[in-house]
Amino acid sequence: MVRLLITGMSGVGKSSVLRELGERGHEVVDTDYGPWKTESGLWDDVLMGALLGESTEVIVSGTVQNQGDFYDRFDHVVLLSAPITVLLDRVRGRTSNPYGSTAEEREEITSNHALVEPLLRATATTEIDATQPLLHVVDQVEDLLRVRT
């Protein structure tokens, strides 16, 4: 069984991919919601440690500063990527998450795309172009679930 992290910038489609994987019957955890983060926005060491220690197969989604502390417990770290123009178009139009609706938040997304995404790329085991149709992206993630590293 495989533990997999889906990471990437706001608007890249992490939640959409996770939702589809959940509908296909996979155990999924979106760390943007629920108890997974501390007040400072980091993953809670105890909760994440328990999740990754107890789950034989789980797909986790999120992008936080301390996620690298958990990489050794994932079989795959998947970076979803897309050009900044795509991300900004997506956050302007989404209704499920208000982040990115203000000019200040879009500036933060642009900055993170330039500064953070290269760091994620350097540590990811796989990068998937998230401009592809959603079901194609999900199929690629699902293919990784058959490969334990």
Summarize the structure.
This protein is α/β, with parallel strands linked by helices and 149 residues long.
What does this structure look like?
This protein is α/β, with parallel strands linked by helices and 149 residues long. Helix content is 41%, strand content 15%. It has helices at residues 14-23, 45-54, 84-93, 103-115, 117-123, 134-144, and strands spanning 3-7, 28-30, 58-61, 76-81, 126-129. A five-stranded parallel sheet has the order 2-3-1-4-5, sandwiched between helices. Helix 2 (45-54) links the parallel strand 2 (28-30) and strand 3 (58-61). Helix 1 (14-23) crosses helix 6 and helix 3 runs antiparallel to helix 4. The chain is globular and about 40 Å long. The mean pLDDT is 94.
Largest sheet: 5 strands, parallel
Q: Look at the structure and name the CATH superfamily.
A: P-loop containing nucleotide triphosphate hydrolases
Q: Give the helix level as a range of percent.
A: 40-55%
In round numbers, the mean pLDDT is 94
Number of helical segments?
Answer: 6
The CATH top-level class label: Alpha Beta
Rough shape? Answer: globular
Distance separating the two termini: 10 Å
What sequence of helices (H) and strands (E) makes up the elements?
A: EHEHEEHHHEH
Beta-strand percentage range: 5-15%
Number of strands: 5
Q: Which ranges are low-confidence, i.e. pLDDT below 50, for 5 or more consecutive residues?
A: none
Read across the widest sheet, the strand sequence of neighbours is 2-3-1-4-5
- Write down the Rg: 15 Å
CATH topology: Rossmann fold
